[in-house]
Design goal:
381 residues; TIM Barrel; eight-stranded parallel barrel; 13 helices; 9 strands; globular; binds ligand G3I
């Protein structure tokens, strides 16, 4: 059941007042998961060190602050199924065990993507391209093995990741070229067969841009018309200080909610560094040449930018809170700034500051802004 701000805050106010002999008015939540309890779960993507237990500082932050987890890499095809007939569930088993031990919402990323999928997947043992039927059979075997292993434990899956071009057309990935556009519906069908209770998501970046959003809306409508078991849309949320506008985010969430989709913000981070001339993208094949002018904050983030980042995070969580009936989950793509892929993308070796915890694991002003947004006035409430 979802609660409004007062049904959420009142018990905390009363509990706080009772605990302190009614000497104070409110004990504001000090964790992300408590601040948004009843609105949506708040998650972090775990890297291999956090999953293996070698990053104990990261694990402590995850346990204290988050009630949902995503695997940054360990459930991608290349990790879990590196060779034909050979699965490696070492890290993914540990990932799921971590979530179960700490009673978290366990999400998984991702079944079908064009990156981090080994070349052998598309070839037979003589090195020839597979036929449509043979590739579908391989896709089905993979999905049923991986989803089936965690049936009843992993609650939601990114079934298909990044199937769209920026203009909204279907990306000509190896999956599309060798199977046809219906690879998308087949992937959802196979996942649903493997775990009928799991929530199944389509996940992508830049859906806040109109052309790509229109393509995604058309895709979801088509899947729904065909009776394909799709439950939600993941907005990756790789944002910067100015793009997308909060209006774009709001419009995008509402557009998918209007189609009956659950919405998750799946990979949230905010890039504070110069873009280097490219429009925002999360296409991992993009590389921009290193240049000191693109790496201005090696010795620390200036306070003005720190405050700008905090305000930006507060504004975005204001939108997520306003749209809490549609938003199921908000997940950060990493825990501390030191972990983030944004230190190496789209320029390698930069010092970026995209998350809520700094390089020593301390909460940043952006963390406080996100907590504050949970109890502050949300636009449109
Ligand atoms: O595991 C190997 C390790 O054995 C090797 O020593 C090391 C040397 O470079 O590489 C390690 O693999 C790296 C892997 O991350 C784990 O750290 C890969 O090179 C590197 O390419 C990979 O990057 C990941 C990227 O996806 C790859 O596509 C990032 O961590 C991950 O954050 C990023 O996540 C994607 C989402 O899946 C989809 N949306 C965009 C998002 C950001 O690109």
């Amino acid at each position: 059941m979802r609660m409004n701000m007062w049904t959420k805050v009142l018990p905390l106010v009363m509990a706080g007042a009772a605990a302190m002999g009614a000497a104070t008015t409110a004990n504001a939540p000090t964790t992300l998961k408590d601040a948004y309890k009843g609105d949506f779960v708040v998650g972090a993507a775990m890297d291999a060190g956090q999953i293996a237990g070698t990053d104990q500082r990261g694990d402590a932050i995850i346990q204290a602050q988050f009630n949902s987890i995503s695997p940054e890499n360990v459930l991608k095809w290349v990790v879990v199924h590196p060779q034909a007939g050979k699965y490696d569930f070492d890290l993914s088993d540990k990932y799921v065990a971590f979530g179960m031990e700490h009673h978290m919402f366990i999400h998984a990323h991702t079944l079908i993507w064009h990156n981090q999928v080994p070349a052998w997947v598309f070839r037979d043992d003589k090195g020839n391209s597979l036929s449509r039927d043979a590739l579908l059979a391989r896709m089905r075997e993979h999905i049923q093995t991986v989803v089936g292993r965690y049936k009843g434990k992993i609650q939601s899956w990114d079934v298909v990741n990044e199937a769209l071009n920026e203009d909204g057309s279907i990306r000509q990935s190896p999956w599309e070229k060798m199977i046809g556009e219906d690879y998308i519906e087949k992937a959802f069908e196979y996942a649903h067969q493997a775990d009928p209770q799991a929530e199944l998501y389509y996940n992508d970046y830049n859906l806040e841009n109109e052309a790509k959003r229109k393509g995604a809306i058309a895709l979801i409508k088509k899947l729904k018309d065909e009776g394909v078991p799709v439950n939600g849309v993941g907005l990756q949320g790789h944002y910067n200080l100015t793009w997308p506008s909060t209006q774009q985010v709001d419009d995008t969430i509402e557009a998918f909610a209007a189609l009956g989709m659950k919405v998750a913000i799946t990979e949230l981070d905010i890039d504070v560094l110069p873009a280097g001339g490219k429009q925002p993208t999360a296409d991992v094949t993009v590389h921009i040449k290193e240049n000191p002018a693109l790496n201005p904050y090696v010795n620390g983030l200036p306070d003005a930018v720190q405050q700008e980042l905090a305000k930006r995070y507060g504004d975005l969580f204001g939108v997520f809170l306003k749209d809490r009936d549609a938003v199921e989950r908000v997940t950060f793509w990493g825990v501390t700034d030191a972990d983030s892929w944004k230190n190496d993308f789209p320029v390698t070796g930069r010092t970026n500051y995209p998350l809520l915890f700094d390089r020593s694991g301390q909460p940043k002003p952006a963390f406080e802004a996100v907590l504050k947004a949970a109890t502050g006035p949300a636009p449109g409430k």
